[in-house]
Amino acid sequence: MCRSIKTLRPPAMPEEATEADIRAAALQYVRKVSGFRAPAAHNQEVFERAVEAVAQATAELLDGLEIRGAAARQAS
Question: So which domain of life are we looking at (predicted)?
Answer without folding.
Answer: Bacteria
